[in-house]
Amino acid sequence: MNATIDPDLVKTVQQDVNALKNDIDKMAFEEEVNREYVKKALHDSQLLLEELRERVDKLEHQQEVVKQEQEDVQQRVTYLENQQKSNQPQINYGNLNNCIAVGGK
User: Fold this and answer.
1) N or C: which end of the chain has fewer CB within 10 A?
2) pLDDT 10s digit of each residue in the chain, 105 long?
3) How far apart are CA 66 and CA 95, in angstroms?
């Protein structure tokens, strides 16, 4: 069987096949670009999360330092209050009554 081939039809099919190949190549390239964008976004997110974790650790440390400093200040205040109380003259009200009675004669 000898069939004749329409050259215009062959040319059209070849053009369609080439267009399809180009479209597939373009899609593959776009998918690769999208994949690279996603990889970069994930990498950037990972870096940002690490930076945030370090900042949180630093803030927690600073908070502990401030808390310790407040406790130290409170201990000093308590110590000074106790020191001041022990340096004040103690009044014995029994003796005070005797002094008033003696002074009042």
Assistant:
1) N
2) 567 888 899 999 999 999 999 999 999 999 999 999 999 999 999 999 999 999 999 999 999 999 999 999 999 999 999 988 888 766 666 655 555 555 554
3) 48
Which residues, including other chains, have CB under 8 Å from residue 42's CB and lie 6 or more apart?
A: none
d(CA 81, CA 87): 10
Helices within 88-105 (DSSP H only) = 93-103
CA distances from 17 to 2, 8, 11, 52 (A): 25, 14, 10, 52
Give 14-79 as a DSSP string: HHHHHHHHHHHHHHHHHHHHHHHHHHHHHHHHHHHHHHHHHHHHHHHHHHHHHHHHHHHHHHHHHH
**DSSP designation for 88:** S
Judge if pTM exceeds 0.70.
no
For residue 88 the two structure tokens come to 């004040």
What are 46's two structure tokens?
């990972």
